[in-house]
Every structure is written in C-alpha cells, then in structure tokens.
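Hello K.,

You asked for the raw outputs rather than the summary table, so here they are, unedited. I folded two proteins back to back in the same session to keep the settings identical. This is the first:
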Amino acid sequence: MVLYIFRRLLQAVPTLLLVITLSFFLMRLAPGGPFDSDIQAPPEIEANLKAAYHLDQPLLTQYFLYLGNLAQGDLGPSFKYRDRSVNDLIATGFPVSARLGLWAMALALLVGVPLGIWAAMRHNRATDHAVMGVALAGIAVPNFVVAPVLALLFSVTLGWLPAGGWGDGQWRYILLPVVALAIPQVAYIARLMRGSMIETMNSPHIRTARAKGLSAIEVVLHHALRPALAPLLSYLGPAMVGIVTGSVVIEQIFGLPGIGRYFVQAALSRDYTLVMGVVVFYGVLIVLFNLLVDLLYGLLNPQIRYED
C-alpha cells in the first residue's frame, strides 16, 4: 500500500503543475494589475513596487521564480495584505473554512444518507417522490439564495441567531452558514444514496439474504449498506474539498474570515500570489482527498487490494 500511495502522489505532480501553469498565465491575461486603483500612484513608486515583487521581470521569468519558491513551500507575499504572506493568510482562513465545511458535510451525511435509504426502500411510492422532489429543489435553489433567506428568517424576523460574524466560532454564529452549506449536499447525497441503494437491493446476494428470512433492517445494515456507499465515496472526495475551501458565497454573505472570502477579495484586487496560493492549496487537497477515497474503497470492498 505504501508503494501505491507513493505512486499516486507522484502521478499527481504533473496534474498540479498543469493547474499551476494554466492559472498563472490565465490570471496575467485578465485586465488590470495588483497596483491599479482609483488613486494613481506616481510612476516611480509604481515602478518600485513592481520591482519589489518581480513584476518588472519577463512573464516567463516570473513563472520560474514562482515555481522555485513554491518548491520550497513559499507561496509568496500578498499584494493586498502587504504585511502578511499567503502562507499566513491560508493558515488563518483555512481553519474557519474547514470547520464550516466539516460540520456541513457531517450534517449532510447525517440527513442525506437516511433520506436516500428511506426513499429507496419505498421506491416509486409517494414517499419516494416527495423526498426526491425536495432533494431536487435543494439542488436547484443555489446557496446564495438560501443563505439570505435563512438570515432574514432566523436573524432579522425571529432574532434567534446572529446575521453574520464569526464570534470566536460559537455555535450561534456558525449554525446558519453550516445549514446553508449543507442543504445542497443533503440533496445530492440523498439522490446518490437512493439510486445506489435501489441498484444494490436488486443484487443476487440481497435476494439470497431475503430468502434466508432476514428482516428489512438486517438486510440493509448488514448486506446492502456497505456496497451502496461505494458510489457515494466517489462523490465525497471532490465534494469535501469543494465544501471546505469553496464556501465563497457563504463566507461573503455571513462575513466569515475563511479562505473563500480571501479568495474573492484577492480575485477582485488582482492579488496574484494569494489567488495562486488558494488554487495550489485547493489542488493539493483534491489529490489527498481522492487518494483517501480510493483507500476507503478497500474498507467497503475487501476484494480490493493495493499491492506493493
């Protein structure tokens, strides 16, 4: 297994390099620059700023300088937050985004998996259609609509919860963002779990278990649940990364100091290094979570072996 993990990580290097290269050059093609503002700086000051950040160098030279620093684990200084590095900003924002994302995914799994199983056990009945209809609505309504509605209802109208802010991570402040993040994931997970469970329940080994006189609960828990979770794992890899680092809209709406909010502000201000840092960090997480999903397949299916 150790050799398999090493080989997978080695294979990810060209993919990450391609993502870094495309992001680096495409970002430079966008109009504007990190030092453009409504107040025009004197030419000599702007020239000094560009020289300090190597922006006066040819683009190819900037690219190789960035790769050299990246190889040493240095994501560079931020252009917008002049007194902080990109490493510091990601280290500050990621725990906030990770906490929101992990709680949201836990809530989505806690609600979505039982809903999907329940709908599958009542296939083509009114309950099944009702659950899938609600799930489809959860997918169709974007979270930038759900979040303001939740804030309007529970903060402005009822006054039960704060409308924004972090508040040292107290549950009163993170409850609404977590729910807003979890709602689309509940819908996706419920639909995936329903389809997978229906297919698994029609398998020969399930018919054999039923023929032995096992109850429906025993069949689901001991024979159908493990193979039915396999397709869900494939979804959870990128979904986990997306919900942990991609809660851009939610963090903006609720004013949370997460990595998604930093990414939006960096994109608007052409903070090249911060945008690149988030992209690289996101790519690494994708690789690691997909590898973790592949390893978890071995727990769900003992027939899978990762031979060295």
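The second followed immediately with the same parameters:
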Amino acid sequence: MKVLVMNCGSSSLKYQLLDMTTENLLAKGLVERIGIAGSFLTHEPTGKDKVRIETEMPTHTVAIKLVLDALINAEHGVIGDMKEIDAVGHRVVHGGETFTDSAIVTEEIMKAIVDCKELAPLHNPANIMGIEACQELMPDTPQVAVFDTAFHQTMPEASYIYGIPYEYYEKYKIRRYGFHGTSHKYVAQRAAVMLGKDPSEVKVITCHLGNGASIAAVKNGKVVDTSMGFTPLEGLVMGTRCGSIDSAILPFLMEKEGLSGKEIDNILNKKSGMLGISGISSDMRDIGQAMSDGNHKAQIALEVYAHYVRKYIGSYAAVMNGVDAIVFTAGIGENAIDLRAMICEGLQFLGTELDPVKNDVRGKEVNMAKDGSKVAILLIPTNEELVIARDTKVLCG
C-alpha cells in the first residue's frame, strides 16, 4: 500500500510518498511560494538526484498537480501511475473537541474541519485547501485527516480547563488543546519500544523542541498534560513566541505602548521568545555562538529556555507521580548537545544522570543516560509523516 502524506501551509506544502508494506520512503519534497511570484518545487526521489522545478503555482491545486506529475515522471518519478497511490494522509492542525483520532474525509468530516477554522485561522484553511485540491485531482482516492490535537484529547478536565468563567468554555470552547500531537505520539511509542515495554506500562515526558516547542506528559500511552494550550503560543519560550506569561502584561503593554490587539498578538507570536530576549536571532545556533562570544543577553536567553523546559519536566513528573523516560526530539532537541546538558543539569533529583559522552550525538536514536540511571534520557528523531501514513493505512488498508 502506497500512501501520500501532505502537509499544506498557506504558501507551501511538504509531502512524502511511502510504501507502507515496508514503511520505506519513496520520495519527499517541498513546494514553496504558492500564490507568490517565484514559486518552485524541490523533489527528492529516494536513490535518485534531487530535482528543482521552477514554475508559477497560483493555487494549491496547481502545486499538488505538479507534485503528482513529479512522482510519475519517467526520469525522476518513483511510481508509474497516480492510481498506485492508495490513499492520501493530510496533516490538519486543529480538530477541536470533535476529533480524538484520525478520520477518513467525508462531507460531514470536512464540515467539522471547516468549523475548526476559527480555532486555527493560520493553519486549518491551508490544510483544507490541500484536502480539496487532492479531492479534485484524485476523486477516487481516499483522503484521511490526521489532527495535531487528537493525541492530546485524553487529557482530564483538570488539565485542559482554564481558570476563567466556565461559560467561555461552553460558548467558545476556550480550553487547552495541545499541538505537535503526531510528534509526541511517535516518540512516546518509540520510547516504550526502547525501554522494552508496552506503552501502557510507562510514564514518558516528551520534549518536542523546535522553533515551536511543546512538552507532553504521556502516562500509560495517554496524554495527561501538555504545555501548549488554546493556541500554540502557550507554554515554553520558543523561537519567536513568548510562551506562558502573566496575562496582565497584555493590557499593561497595550495601554503603555498604545497597541491594538492585533499588534500585541504580533509581538507575542513573532517578536518575542529567543529573538526577543537575545535581540539577535530566533536560531539557537546564532544565539549559542553569540553566548560563546560573551553576549550576556544570548546567555540569558539560553538559560531562560533551559529553565522553562526543566520546570515543565519537573512538574510533569509530579503530575504522573514519576517518570520512566525523558525524550528529546525535533530540530533543537535532536541537535543541541550543550542545551540538552543544560536542561538535564538540576534534574538529578528525579534519578536522571546524563552521560556526556552518549549525549555527544545528533539525530540518532539513543539512550543518553548513564548506566544505572533510574530514568532513561532518550534522543528520538521524530517522524510525523510516518504517523500520518500509519493512521492512513489503518483506516484505508
């Protein structure tokens, strides 16, 4: 069974084609600048040379048609015909409370996804465009929606209800939803495998640390708490996002600086976080270099980042009454050796002991804890596309 995985943004799309009989990757690629001048496709077929195709792509339908043409191309394609694609799995950012699992797209399911647009106005519309484009181009191929929020829907009410009037939850569904669900799901399941146990037997804290970052407490295979909330702004300090702050700061700044709601939202989402503290960059590599050069604000930014991650790990160990493994994943989690060491420093009370030699690695699946450590410290490269493909296979296979 061959599954095409689509991850559509407002002006871009990432894709992978996988043979789910073996879970082998056949091809992957990225389309950039959809609807913008200078659009192009970077197509990477397994075992063949990478190809860059430059052509105008005014819509997602045109972009996806180009992707399909690349997949069946005589020179750089990997299949002979579009009919070899048995199903398409789509990343959908927000499923609200409606979806606790992935779903085959029907007219009713599509309406429910559209109803969630208000909860993710920057993401769901693009995800919807991707589904509609595939339906137009591949009308007989099943489409599956896989939701970032679904894995977190096992949280108890005590974890997702905010301390505001309950009527706002009832009227507007304001609650904690959590994001990066496919990543947390994948690495939590892999962690259980690495520990030689069933997911229902372990307590895992998964740290998805990228430009956007979140942490989840996964107890016996189910999420009991997560750091992102109603939106992906809450929780950790991130690349350009502030994370959790005193909410009274918002009206204070709006009054002092004469800012509108849209302007303060832009500051919190795009000008804060590591960029805002360091004044240099949102990129950890740039900040790390600046710290090495003696930049105080860069040092503070890294210390703040490590402090927040450490604080969530400690609190989630309390929420679960213990922890068997701490997992680092995503761009920063998989590659920032020194930052992982900073985060683990001070967690020894949990029974964690990081081995500096084992920690000297990037992008490899490994237990970085010292021999005899009570808690495993795992580096697990994430694979969200594989989760989407697996869910699609289960529903359509």
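The mean pLDDT is 92.

Happy to rerun anything if the numbers look odd on your end.

Regards,
P.
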